[in-house]
Amino acid sequence: MKGRKLLLIPALWLAGCGPRAEETAPTPVVDVKVRKAELAEVRLTVRGPAFVFPREQAGISARITAPIRKLLVRKGDSVEAGQVLAELDNRDLLAQRDEAAAAVTEAEASLQKLTSATLPGDIERARGQAASAEAALNQAQKFYDRRRQLFEQGAIPQRDLLVSETELAQAKANYAVAKGALDLLLGQSREREITMARSRLQQAQARLALITTQLDFTQIRSSFAGTVTEQFMFPGDMARPDAPIFTVMDLSAAVARAQIPVADAASLHSGQTCTFAPADAAGRSFGGRVSVVNQAVDPARRTVEAWCEIPNPDRALRAGMFGETTIVTGSAPNSVVVPLAAVQFVEGSKEGAVMVATAQGVALKKDVQTGEVFDGKVQVTRGLTAGEPVIVEGAYGLASGARIRIREESKP
């Protein structure tokens, strides 16, 4: 009997001790800081990656083909609109201009002579000039025929034949002028000859004007003020219309060309406020205005291009910079706003959760939908009302229903 009583004592002791141990286990209380959700006006924005381009950019090339005689600027130089950047060799054109000017003078004299009264001896002089011109024409024709035979035999280059063709054409023209003057003095078609003389004068003047314009083209000018960013040719190189000599950029205003998701593009229009934040200049941003919204969608990226034009007087923005453009599309008054630290986001989403402090000293998890993020705050579009105290410190790892103690309310 004694053995049985001794065995019962430990069992009774263990049964009495168990419940009292559970009753004395303390419930943990977590210290937190809270801030009440506020109402505020929130700017609505869209964002997209962007590269910086100059406001204007041009490849400066020659309008005629000629060797480069001199370069007057170098890469990196600032230039003004209309400034001469390079000069081409113009010796051939100067000679052609002198020849054209002489042709104008001759045509003017011929017209003057035809419109003036015929003086004694004019007919004899005209006959002599016509005879001389005819002899020169015959000589030029024989010379051309001989050279053509030599060319067909391969004895001379085509260049020599072309020279003979030019001389023959000039001789024919000279004879036509001399013969026309003689016929006119003899009373044949005077009015018609005067009309033809005026036409020849106009042709000579037009040729002179053309050559003068081509001479102007030997001076290569910048079409706008900017900076020389590339140089492709040097003195002695052959300039031509299809090959640029320089690249000039105008970066007095920069253009950040942003790629905006097509889902956000409906709210875009010219004139909206925008900012560009370079990726390699943390904390800096540059403000401007939207100048262009493309009406076409990039089918590969599903984006719409929008241009943010930014004043750039100090040239802080350079062509090729990469960053993010933010465009303000409107505002949302009386939006619920909480500190960004209060929201636990679902990765890659605008959905998340906040922990709200209840009057009973318990943390309550609320799922929320967020909108704009700005200045360390976030807009809550669903799931929370203004005035609710959200936990801003101590919420990490805190379970919904956990007991909390508010140490102090965080100040805005």
Quick recap:
This protein is α+β, with helices and mostly antiparallel strands and 412 residues long. The protein has helices spanning 2-23, 91-115, 122-152, 158-185, 190-217, and strands at residues 29-36, 38-61, 66-71, 78-79, 84-88, 219-221, 226-231, 238-239, 244-261, 273-278, 286-298, 303-311, 322-339, 344-345, 351-357, 363-374, 377-382, 389-393, 403-409. It has four domains: 29-41 and 333-409, Beta Barrel (conserved putative lor/sdh protein from methanococcus maripaludis s2 fold); 46-56 and 251-332, Elongation Factor Tu (Ef-tu), domain 3 (Beta Barrel), CATH 2.40.30; 59-89 and 218-247, OB fold (Dihydrolipoamide Acetyltransferase, E2P); 91-216, no CATH class.
Q: How does this model look, in words?
A:
By secondary structure, the chain is of the alpha+beta class. The protein folds into four domains: 29-41 and 333-409, conserved putative lor/sdh protein from methanococcus maripaludis s2 fold (Beta Barrel), CATH 2.40.420.20; 46-56 and 251-332, Efflux pump adaptor protein, beta barrel domain (Elongation Factor Tu (Ef-tu), domain 3), CATH 2.40.30; 59-89 and 218-247, RNA polymerase II/Efflux pump adaptor protein, barrel-sandwich hybrid domain (OB fold (Dihydrolipoamide Acetyltransferase, E2P)), CATH 2.40.50; 91-216, no CATH class. Helices cover 33% and strands 39% of the residues. Helix 3 runs antiparallel to helix 4. The longest helix is centred in the N-terminal third of the chain and has 31 residues, at 122-152. The protein is rod-shaped. 26% of the residues are buried. Residues 1-19 have low confidence and may be disordered.
